[in-house]
Write a structure and sequence with these properties.
The protein is of the alpha/beta class and about 450 residues long. It has 2 domains: about 220 residues, 3-Layer(aba) Sandwich (D-Maltodextrin-Binding Protein, domain 2); about 220 residues, D-Maltodextrin-Binding Protein, domain 2 (3-Layer(aba) Sandwich), CATH 3.40.190.10. The protein has 20 helices and 16 strands. A 6-stranded mixed sheet has the order 1-3-2-4-14-5. The protein has a 4-stranded mixed sheet with strand order 7-10-6-11. The longest helix has 16 residues. The relative contact order is 0.17.
């Protein structure tokens, strides 16, 4: 159930989170209290993010005597979280003062008038010079102003279980050259190691942007240039072979039963299940996923502690469709700390954001959360460079990583891609028909600003 009134939504978010964790006390509406909203995993366990936010909140209260931080952990899937925080931000009664924003939503929230620009603050903040230009651009609106401070980025690739690979006769240093090699490895696992899911590629509407970005777009961006949006024409692209082939890859995975059961694959809880069950229980051979997975298996990771993960799992770049240069694909994303336009305490909000992003705290978050650093001084720190097994591999993918179109209509386009993925995964549509239906929907979503490409 999704309440429509903002106040009801805030109440629902608090109930969903179990209890509202707070540093200090009070209703959070006075001038001495700053409210911060952030996503909490659907499994309800205490996560690395929960612990880190509490750490910074306590630090802020110590350095700002008389000020309190009220935490609003919103327990929800990513899609539901986006909806809830957008509703919360629409009213001064329910708007937090600081909100954790996925970068792909920043421009749509700017267009909706939900966020405050931070340029006046950033100009006088010396630490801003430490941030990588690409990270800064992730929170920049089409008006040229900046609406958030990023806390890290991420890259994506293939995680594979080396023990399962050994049973299947596959190499421990696996580096698939193309899509066919990925599918062939999954087929080999299916044939030789019963009781194991050969390959997970997130799909459908339930997983939201996890499916669209690290499932579909990891495929699509390896089929050729400008297959989703043409920046030269400033138009969204229709009719490409790459779009159909990407849906065809998913069709193969689920028709050949190489992936999870369709009902599981389309569940909004699939991300939690993969990280907290399938991988640590060694029931999944190959997972197309993000650089952050290691945080799930630390003692405070929120998933399940798995000390052996670094020896059990290998990483490999996801290949382009036919092995064309550069031979590998990665999508980069990340989250920012932003200030809603309806925030009642914008000055305290800015002070809290600066506290989140001191060098020491940024380093702490990257180490705890297996994040790819966006501050140059953090990226160079020895503690970061040795923090998590595989951090060097995923940091190395930054140079080939692509970004989603930073446009206000992108969330609607992404939802249409999720619909196409779900239709194919569920067997309700062929890749060709799902692509054609997407093209029709796309034209209406973007006011006809499309261009057809072969």
């Amino acid at each position: 159930m999704r309440p429509t009134a903002p106040l009801m939504l805030l109440a629902a978010a608090v109930v969903a989170a179990g209890t509202l964790t707070a540093c200090g006390s009070g209703p959070g509406s006075d001038q001495n209290t700053v409210k911060v909203a952030f996503i909490k995993d659907t499994n309800g366990k205490v996560t690395v993010r929960d612990d880190y936010v509490r750490l910074v909140a306590r630090q802020f209260e110590r350095s700002h005597p008389g000020k309190k931080v009220r935490l609003i952990p919103v327990q929800a899937s990513e899609n539901d979280y986006y909806t809830k925080i957008q509703q919360m931000m629409r009213s001064p009664r329910t708007a937090p003062d600081v909100v954790y924003e996925d970068t792909f939503l920043v421009n749509s929230d700017i267009t909706a008038g939900l966020l405050r620009p931070l340029d006046d603050r950033l100009r006088t903040w010396d630490d801003w010079r430490q941030f990588e230009p690409a990270a800064k651009s992730a929170a920049r609106g089409q008006d040229g102003r900046t609406y958030g401070v990023p806390d890290g980025t991420d890259t994506r690739g293939l995680w594979f279980n080396k023990k399962i690979f050994k049973q299947a006769g596959l190499p421990a240093d696996w580096r698939p050259r193309d899509w066919a090699a990925v599918l062939d490895a999954a087929r080999t696992v299916k044939r030789t190691v019963p009781g194991v899911v050969p390959l997970n590629v997130f799909t459908g509407k339930g997983a939201g942007e996890a499916a669209v970005m690290q499932g579909f777009e990891m495929l699509l961006y390896g089929t050729g240039a400008d297959q989703l949006y043409d920046p030269a024409d400033r138009k969204w692209v229709t009719g490409t072979r790459g779009f159909k082939d990407s849906l065809g890859f998913l069709d193969t995975v689920y028709k050949e039963k190489l992936g999870p059961d369709v009902s599981d694959a389309l569940s909004p809880h699939i991300q939690t299940r993969v990280a907290a069950e399938l991988l640590p229980e060694e029931k999944l051979a190959i997972d197309l996923d993000g650089s952050w997975l290691g945080q799930q298996w630390q003692k405070t990771g929120g998933g399940r502690p798995w000390p052996a993960w670094s020896a059990t799992l290998g990483q490999a770049p996801f290949p382009t469709q036919h092995g064309a240069p550069p031979g590998k694909v990665s999508l980069a994303g990340g989250w920012t700390w932003s200030v809603p336009r309806q925030a009642r305490q914008p000055e305290l909000a800015w002070q809290l954001i600066k506290t989140f992003q001191t060098k020491a705290n940024a380093l702490e978050w990257c180490v705890r959360g297996a994040q790819i650093a966006v501050r140059k001084d953090v990226a160079a720190d020895p503690r970061y460079r040795t923090s998590v097994p595989g951090i060097g591999f995923f940091t190395g993918l930054v140079k080939v990583s692509r970004y989603r179109p930073a446009l206000p209509e992108y969330p609607r386009v992404a939802a249409a891609i999720g619909e196409a993925m779900e239709a194919v995964t569920a067997g309700d549509s062929s890749p060709e028909k799902a692509a054609a239906d997407y093209d029709t929907t796309l034209a209406s979503l973007v006011g006809g600003r499309t261009v057809a490409k072969p």
